[in-house]
């Protein structure tokens, strides 16, 4: 599968605790992102996670009308370090009705000592 760099929220982004993706995506004023499209948020673990004081990582998709105030649209389960080994994939289908801007937020209840991810939009689940 070929991926467009414009669809990446995170590229080998180190996660050390709660925080936003390095990029936000602008889907355009009249965007119909999520409406009738078969898109998914895909998060691939590049570096295995180890937790310091954290007990979980939660991946959240946020959207905004103005690229300043973001609201949570969906979230993954609370993922443990055992579920976040190198090569692990989390795939979350996009819901309809997303607003113009989207970003990913990595939620955690503490510190993370190691872990890095790629996060991107894909029209299908990549096989590798």
Written account of the structure:
The chain has 128 residues and is an all-beta fold. It has one domain: Jelly Rolls (Sandwich). 0% of the residues lie in helices and 47% in strands. The protein is built from no helices and 9 strands. It has strands at 8-14, 19-20, 25-26, 40-51, 57-64, 71-75, 89-93, 101-108, 112-122. The strands form 2 sheets. Strands 2, 3, 5, 6 and 8 form a 5-stranded antiparallel sheet that branches. Strand 5 (57-64) and strand 6 (71-75) form a beta hairpin. The termini are close together. The mean pLDDT is 90.
Number of separate domains: 1
Q: Using only CA atoms, what is the Rg?
A: 14 Å
Tell me the helix content.
under 10%
Distance between the termini: 8 Å
Given the C-alpha coordinates, what overall shape results? globular
Strand content: over 45%
Total of helices: 0
Strand count: 9
- Determine and state the CATH class: Mainly Beta
For the largest beta-sheet, the strand count, sense and barrel status come to: 5 strands, antiparallel
Spans where pLDDT lies below 50 across 5 or more residues:
none
Do you know the CATH architecture? Answer: Sandwich
Fold topology:
Elements: E1 8-14, E2 19-20, E3 25-26, E4 40-51, E5 57-64, E6 71-75, E7 89-93, E8 101-108, E9 112-122
Antiparallel strand pairs: 1-9, 2-8, 3-8, 4-7, 4-9, 5-6, 5-8
